[in-house]
Prior knowledge:
By secondary structure, the chain is an alpha/beta fold. It has helices at 2-9, 35-46, 57-61, 66-79, 95-108, 148-151, 164-173, 191-200, 218-225, 244-247, 255-277, and strands at 13-17, 52-55, 86-91, 113-116, 135-141, 182-186, 206-208, 227-228, 234-236, 238-242. It has one domain: Aldolase class I (TIM Barrel). Helix 2 (35-46) links the parallel strand 1 and strand 2.
Amino acid sequence: MLSAAERQNGSMLCVGLDPEPSKFPAGMQGNANKIYDFCAAIVDATADLVSSFKPQIAYFAAHRAEGQLERLMEHMRRVAPHVPIILDAKRGDIGSTAEQYAIEAFERYGADAVTLSPFMGWDSVAPYLKYHGKGAFLLCRTSNPGGDDLQNQRLASVEGQPLLYEHVARLAQGPWNLNGQLGLVVGATYPAEIERVRALAPTVPLLIPGVGAQGGDAVATVKAGWRANPDGSSNGPIIVNSSRAVLYASSGADFAVAARQVAMQTRETLQAAKADKAP
């Protein structure tokens, strides 16, 4: 599904849906009841420009807007059925609880993939992979500075003493990826680490947040993470997320038009970098 959306829309861009009512345009600003309306307008404006959408569940739950998220998921499936929806939830819990979170992500919300924390081990990931055709992106080398606290620590107990994020990448490429359902989250703010993860996990999809407001460089991201087959198609697909730069491109009534313009510019930048790297 991801590959088909990338081909159809000519895009590696993911638009993150992180609605903050305080940043909404005039007429909506501060009104949490307008979360669905705001996000649906962004979806309508960008649905032909993206390879995925990524709603962040906390931005809905904090405002008691889970019902609006359900409506938004239905809207995205209706207007852009070819575009995967990644529910950004970063769940990570024991197997019995993970089973409930999997029901939430895939049955309640109908997401195509979900983000997970892998640090409770295989049994916290396995329940999600029971859903045929669904995906899970494991946190690997995240875009926040505090990621160094754990992800850059060496594992003395593992052969070769890899860094923790390197070990996660190897697991996702190898023994944990039983049905080809796993991907990895790697921040755009660390292009050298993106390249290292890609070397260790050459074919898994990489979800790369941090482009735009967080300062990640789109061109460096593509050069570090994207890998091509001889025919130019993606062998190592990447999903480059931009949230705030798209959502809040304008504070006026033209917010959806402005969001489309920023999304189009970002898509074109990514595609140009991809063309430069293609064999």
